[in-house]
Design brief:
This protein is an alpha/beta fold. The chain is built from eleven helices and eleven strands. Strands 1, 2, 3, 4 and 5 form a five-stranded mixed beta sheet that branches. Strands 9-10-8-11 form a four-stranded mixed beta sheet. Helix 8 packs across helix 9.
Length: about 300
Amino acid sequence: MKGMTRRQMIASAGLIAGAVPLSRPAIAQGKPEKLVLVGINAAIQGALVDEVGPEFERKHGIKVEFNLLPLDALSAKLRAELNAGSQGIDILQWNPDMTGWLAPHLEDHAKLLQDFGSKQPDFDWDDFMPSVKGMASYAGKLQGIPFRVTAPVLHYQKELLEAAGIAAPPTTFAELRAAALATTAAGQPGRFGLGLMGRQGAALVVSFAPYLFSAGGRFYDAATGEIFINRPEAVAALDFFGGLLSRDKVVPPEATTWEFNEIIAGGQADRYAMTVAFAPYGTLINDPSRSKTGGKWAWALAPGAESLSPST
């Protein structure tokens, strides 16, 4: 693209992906020896690191160097390097909540896609749902390419629930609490009823969100900025969520240090009977080659406060 180097086009590949301005004309630039991908350090990156990167190098002769960081460290690195005009990043993984401050550094991906689409006939931007495209857009500009959008579901060990006299996965908060109490009592001292991500930061927000939404609550109005987190529905959801750990003692005490990788490791190590977490985590938790509990998990909709309706 005239007047741009490959580093001007940081193609993003994360939850959402994006691109930044650089300097030498791409037309005069030879094939690079490597591409630097900066992204999120998570167990889900296995396919990208172990399969996609090596296959890309085999096919194109270009090595992909992965620099994967915890979410907070990733955010700090991107703020520092992009604001300083760094040209050391080619591919960027980022979360939608970073869009506002990343936007000045990102190219309009709608324009990039016009060129890309003619070279990749099997890529169809119309395959993406409008709501997903919206997550990748800000201020009227497409900031990146959606990489994955995940939804939380209930992961549960079916045999443990049945052994505790529970025939079906819980569908309400009351049923979830009862199942967590029963499986905690049956599993002590090594196993608790419920796992959650309790470390302060992004993981805690993600862990609490399905309880908030299932209780009919919301964080805020994106259009007006009105705050909803202190409304009765949200307060009730937070009281229930926190009470599972503080009052009911059905959560492993070390869960206050757990983030994304730890909730997966906890399930693999049989530290809990149930968790409400991202759906793809089931693949890792249930993998017999990686998990002590491999083959024992089943899945259902996350429970709602009074019914499955708000969860759905």
